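Researcher: Quick test of sequence recovery. Tokens follow.
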């Protein structure tokens, strides 16, 4: 069992290290940029400058993942499921 888990961890690290997402920055008529990550519905932000839009988009992604994590943890509290936090770093 531990061998399978170790293999799974290595596989996930490899996938996450090479994970590619598409950020799209669209100029707004009133100025600034609208930003979104195409592959993850709901990760949308904006900024007065392109750099600000990029920073805000990364924050939107982080908030989306935190929200999903919290919602799922609430669903699991009444179950006998085992959850584990996985940390990925490149």
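Model:
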């Amino acid at each position: 069992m531990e061998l399978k888990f170790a293999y799974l961890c290595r596989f996930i690290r490899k996938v996450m290290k090479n994970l590619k997402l598409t950020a799209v920055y669209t100029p707004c008529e009133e100025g600034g940029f609208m930003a979104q990550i195409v592959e993850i519905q709901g990760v949308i932000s904006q900024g007065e400058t392109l750099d600000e839009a990029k920073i805000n988009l990364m924050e939107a992604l982080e908030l989306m993942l935190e929200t999903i994590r919290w919602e799922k943890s609430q669903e699991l509290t009444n179950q006998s499921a085992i959850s584990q936090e996985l940390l990925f770093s490149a």
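The chain has a mean pLDDT of 84.
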